[in-house]
Amino acid sequence: MTVNTAVAVLVILAAACAPAPLAKAPPPASERPGQFVPFVDHHQHLLSPAGATRANRLLPAVDLPEDLARLVQERAAHWNDPAALAPLYTDDALARMLENPGWIAGRSAVARYLGTRFAAPYHLTPVSFRRAVSSAEIAGYLTRGEGADAKPFAYFLLALERGTDGRWRIAAETPTLPGPVIEEPETAEQLISFLDEVGIRRAVVLSDGYMFDSPKDGLPGAEAKLRAVRAENDWTADQVARFPERLVAFCSFSPLEDYALAELERCAASHRFKGLKLHFGVSHVDLKNPDHVAKVRRVMEAANRLRMPIIVHVRADATYGREHAQIFLDRLVAAAPAVPITIAHLWGGEMFSEEALAVYADAVSAGDPRTRNLFFDIAEIAYAVSKSPEALPKVVSRMRQIGLRRILYGSDGPVAESATPLESWKRTQTLPLTVDELRIVASNLAPYLR
Fold it and tell me: Are residues 109 and 48 in the same domain?
């Protein structure tokens, strides 16, 4: 492999998106509701060890052929020794610089550069390789720690050449920082500390079970999905049970799976769950598909019979709007008249849907009997509309049309994927509500907590 070819195969793309700034600064201290905070966070999540593994989605390490493995081991062993590193590279080797995107050329320069860049030892953990007669490529993570405790902090890609002496050498090396963002498990104890930081007394903890039977996850077969869903639901219940005076749990799963009714019955019979969380986006529920609607309706009818309150993330994709909201109201909300149903994120999730929110607000204000037990949490809505200042007055106007007594405070979680309850409450205060209106929202309790 020539150096030019080696360079051509190195494609490194690293980008990070910072959260957008809020559309409106908090009001002056004299106007802030500093004397009160929400009593309940109605929309929270934990992060189980299984959930963290799923979220991180690190590729597993692979075993290299002995000759390639020896080179990688020597490269790691001499991480801070330029003189010992130099023989591992070809005469015309290249290395990509970490600080300034650009290239270092030549064996000695490359060894000197890479041998003086890091402050502590590390391993090169390969996750992929390919080889031909005289060329090879290895991709992986730079990691620190041993075994299960090993954590990646950067990526690497090596292009190798076999010399006339039969030895493999590195023709081009590209280390890339930062590495993957690693989410750590978040327990009930940690959630309690976050709630205490702002002074929130109670929280509704929504199981992430629906993540494990999502079509996105690719688990093979219904049995594997059900095992993973049950394990996640039970882990959530176990965590919540450590703080019974402060936390309640909702179970979850895909309503499209054949085992959905059985898992709902199991959750209800355990008496460890207060209700049911459904996420149409993660579960790929299509509200314009009559078969999907029928399956979800059966689940909601069963939840109604079992007196299990329901929280629903209604938005499934970018097409979500008036027609979807009307179907949800006509076919699904109507199927569970005896239990509280909460529409998550006010209009149903993600980017602002003026059309969907109008359907719900108009139905409530018109006295539609199907909305008698309909509630709305405001988890992340201040952040969702922060890029669209023109949406703020529309959102607040619809909240007032619905009636603030139906609006439940929520922040979302886990913190690794969202914001702390304290940060979320500060964001909520940027909504153009009066102090008295914020006080009402902060004091509201879902009926199942009264």
Answer: no
